[in-house]
Amino acid sequence: MKRSNQQQTLEVSTFLRIRKWYLLALSAIALTIIIAQILIQQHLNSQLNDSRVINVAGRQRAYSQKLVKEALLLNQENLEENERQELLKELNSTLYIWKTSHEGLQMGNDSIGLPKEDNVSILEHFDELSIHHSAMVDAVKTMLSQKDASGQALDVLLANEGPFLEKMDAIVNEYDTISKERLQKLKVKEYLLLCFSLLILILEVLFIFRPLSIQIKETIRNLVKSQLQSEQDAEEIKKIFEEKERSLQELKELNFVIDNAALFASARSDGTVVFISKKFLTLLEESNIPPNTHLSEILTTDEGQQQYLGEILTKPRKSIRTEEIEIKTKAGNKLWLDMSIIPMHQTSLKQSVLLLCSDITERKNNQEKVEQLTLQNYEDRMRQKQLQASLIVEGQEEERKRIAKDIHDGIGQMLTALRFNIESINLDQKERTKEKIAYLKELTSDLIKGVRTATFNLTPPELGDHGIFPALQKMTSELSKLTGKNILFENKAEQNIRFDSLAETNIYRVTQEAVNNAIKYADANYILVSINHTDNLLSVVIDDDGKGFDPTVLDRPPKNNSEGGMGVFFMRERISYINGRLFINSNPGEGTRVTINYNLNETQKPKKETYED
């Protein structure tokens, strides 16, 4: 025991010593990283200042050349007054920037980010440059005051430009040399820090990781010994475990009953009750059980069910039997049980059974209600389909009557008039004959127009030949001519597309019905039909300025011959055929908007097609 405590104390001291050296090594590495970052950030700030100074110094050369160029332009003889004033303004601005940058390079300027210069060599160059800079500044000021009539100031400016550029080049080169020297010093510092970090890592390997690896190796050796001892102990435990395995299996079976069933009972091989749970007795409305009572007599009062349960409970079996059964309690209540019969002690001659049950009465009642509701919904849908079918038949009959009336009242009457006029022609009366022939030509033209209108309303040729885009354009144009109303078509799509003919026909008919409703019932003077499509959606919008209506009337059942009622019904039916969507928005006195949306699925990718108006 004493040896164990000494070993534990030694291990703790070793761990503390290794942890102390490890923390010191990490602290040294962290310190070198912080120092390196400080040096790098200082150098970056210095480089930023150097780059800004070099940039400004380089621009001084460009601004000096810009001053000379503007001065030369100012001394042109054919300048207008406004151009001269503009050049004077530009020259003054250039002089201000050039002068400010020159002073900032020496004394510093916070507004343009220039530090004060303290390098003796660069300041000496600026002293040499100041003579030429001052002369150029005075010359430009003389030109700005417009007192240089003889051009002497321009001569002074030109004479000092070359020396100024030469000295400025020397200053820029000096700035570059200083920046490179700073960078070289930083490299040396970085190399020293790198060497220091590598040294720390080497010392850490020698004095921390190496002793730690030796300690781990010793620990693994001890673990291997402990593992061998554990395996020997496990063999002994395995023997004990095999001896108690049968008892454990019985405990598992009993555990299953307790964990998974709230209603359970057990019976002997002859079907008499051994045990029944209190909850099961409460459900069966039983208070006490006489000795040697058969389990089937407790479960139900129905004699036929008792006989059936007696047979399945006493019959020897090797597998679990599961079924759903309806029972009847003493109070006359009917219950549904999900019953599992589990055989026990299969190897012995006297086999007993364990009965596990679940009360599924509520589920069965709900299932019956669902079946009743399903049947009722099916009957409601069938009645609705019959109503829709009758409405469709009535609509078809009304359409046939309308077509027959149009042909009889329009085309039929014109044909009758044509016949009577042809029969009344008398070739002996030439003047009268000419008048009748002229009338017949006009009547024939009206007849052709009527036939074209009727056939157009039935099946427009543009729809089958070119698609929905030109068909809607033709429809709006023809209806505008026939009704005298402003019916316009706007194509917002980039180009014409073709897709499923059934969808094209139904979209055309729904649009036609919406326009006709706007003409007949809304008393609209302006109707706009616009069409657009994206990759997956075709949209047709019909707007009118009519009297509008209360949209709640659309929720009422459609009635034949009602204003727009049957029309809206057929519009919705047609859109539902192609899995489209129909939206109708309106308010009394504010017009109506009808929107048709049709999804272009992957199997109906639109095909591009061009056409001529």
UniProtKB/TrEMBL annotation:
<keyword id="KW-0902">Two-component regulatory system</keyword>
<keyword id="KW-0812">Transmembrane</keyword>
<dbReference type="Pfam" id="PF13675">
    <property type="entry name" value="PilJ"/>
</dbReference>
<keyword id="KW-1133">Transmembrane helix</keyword>
<dbReference type="Pfam" id="PF13426">
    <property type="entry name" value="PAS_9"/>
</dbReference>
<keyword id="KW-0418">Kinase</keyword>
<feature type="domain" description="Histidine kinase">
    <location>
        <begin position="406"/>
        <end position="602"/>
    </location>
</feature>
<dbReference type="InterPro" id="IPR029095">
    <property type="entry name" value="NarX-like_N"/>
</dbReference>
<keyword id="KW-0597">Phosphoprotein</keyword>
<protein>
    <recommendedName>
        <fullName>histidine kinase</fullName>
        <ecNumber>2.7.13.3</ecNumber>
    </recommendedName>
</protein>
<keyword id="KW-0808">Transferase</keyword>
<dbReference type="InterPro" id="IPR005467">
    <property type="entry name" value="His_kinase_dom"/>
</dbReference>
<dbReference type="Pfam" id="PF02518">
    <property type="entry name" value="HATPase_c"/>
</dbReference>
<dbReference type="InterPro" id="IPR000700">
    <property type="entry name" value="PAS-assoc_C"/>
</dbReference>
<dbReference type="InterPro" id="IPR036890">
    <property type="entry name" value="HATPase_C_sf"/>
</dbReference>
<keyword id="KW-0472">Membrane</keyword>
<feature type="domain" description="PAC">
    <location>
        <begin position="321"/>
        <end position="372"/>
    </location>
</feature>
<dbReference type="InterPro" id="IPR035965">
    <property type="entry name" value="PAS-like_dom_sf"/>
</dbReference>
<feature type="transmembrane region" description="Helical">
    <location>
        <begin position="21"/>
        <end position="40"/>
    </location>
</feature>
<dbReference type="InterPro" id="IPR011712">
    <property type="entry name" value="Sig_transdc_His_kin_sub3_dim/P"/>
</dbReference>
<keyword id="KW-0547">Nucleotide-binding</keyword>
<dbReference type="InterPro" id="IPR000014">
    <property type="entry name" value="PAS"/>
</dbReference>
<dbReference type="InterPro" id="IPR050482">
    <property type="entry name" value="Sensor_HK_TwoCompSys"/>
</dbReference>
<dbReference type="Pfam" id="PF07730">
    <property type="entry name" value="HisKA_3"/>
</dbReference>
<dbReference type="InterPro" id="IPR003594">
    <property type="entry name" value="HATPase_dom"/>
</dbReference>
<keyword id="KW-0067">ATP-binding</keyword>
